Amino acid sequence: MKIIDHPLAQEVLTILRDRNTGQIVFRKSLVKLGRLIGYEIARTMRGQEVEVETPLGVKAKGFRLTDADHVIIINVLRAAVPLVEGLLKIFPAARQGIISARRVEEGVAAPEFNFKIEKNYVKLTKIRPEDTVIIADPMLASGCTMLAVLEEVYKVGKPKRVIIASVIAAPLGIQRILEKYPDVEIFTVSVDEGLNEHGYIVPGLGDAGDRAFG
Ligand code: URA
C-alpha cells in the first residue's frame, strides 16, 4: 500500500475535491495525477546498468528501466480515461486493456455495500510472467468493481506485479482487495474516511466520471 504524499499530488487532489472545480480543470488534474502516480510506480521498478558513449567520445554509466518495457495498463471505463492519459506519459510503450465495468446502483447500498457489477466490454491483451499490470481506476470505493476487474485479469495470465492506480481509496475497498489478492499493490493519493449510504467515498470528490466528462 503506497500513499503518494508528494506535495504536488496532494495539491492536485485538493483541486479535484473542490466542488467548484469545473470539467476541464478536473479532467486535466486527473491527467496530472496519472503522471505523478506513474513516477511513483516507476520508482519501484527494476532496471539495469547500461553504458553509452557521449558526444565527447567518453563512456558514461547509465540506467535503463527495463520493467517499463513490459507494462500493461488497464483502463476501467470511464473515469480512468484521463488517469490513463497521464500514466501513458510515463509508460508510453504500455500495452492496453479496456474493461467497461460499473456498479449497478440500486438505492441505498449500506450496510454491506455488495454491489452487483455489470461488465459489458472486456478486451485484454495477453499477460505474460514478466508484465507489470497497472489497473487504473480513480476511485476504489467498495472494491466490488475492482474485484470483478481482477477476476478478468487473472483469467488472462499471472503477471509479475499487479498494481492498482487510484486517486482516493476507502478502507473497505482496500480490505476487500487485499483479503482476496494479498499480492496486489495499491497506489493511491489518499485513503479517505469511508463510504456514505450510497457507496460514495467520503469526503471523496463526488462522481469522478460525471465530473470528468460533464
Ligand atoms: N465512484 C466515484 O466516482 N466516486 C465515488 O465516491 C465512488 C465511486
Please provide a brief summary of the model.
The chain is of the alpha/beta class.
Model description:
With 214 residues, the protein is of the alpha/beta class. The chain has one domain (2-46, 66-213): Rossmann fold (3-Layer(aba) Sandwich), CATH 3.40.50.2020. Helix content is 34%, strand content 29%. It is built from six helices and 14 strands. The chain has helices at residues 7-17, 23-43, 80-90, 144-156, 171-180, 208-213; strands at residues 2-3, 48-53, 59-64, 71-77, 95-104, 116-123, 132-136, 139-140, 161-165, 168-169, 185-188, 190-191, 194-195, 201-202. Helix 1 (7-17) packs antiparallel against helix 2 (23-43). The longest helix is centred in the first third of the chain and has 21 residues, at 23-43. The two termini are 31 Å apart. The model has no long low-confidence stretch (mean pLDDT 96). Uracil binds next to helix 6.
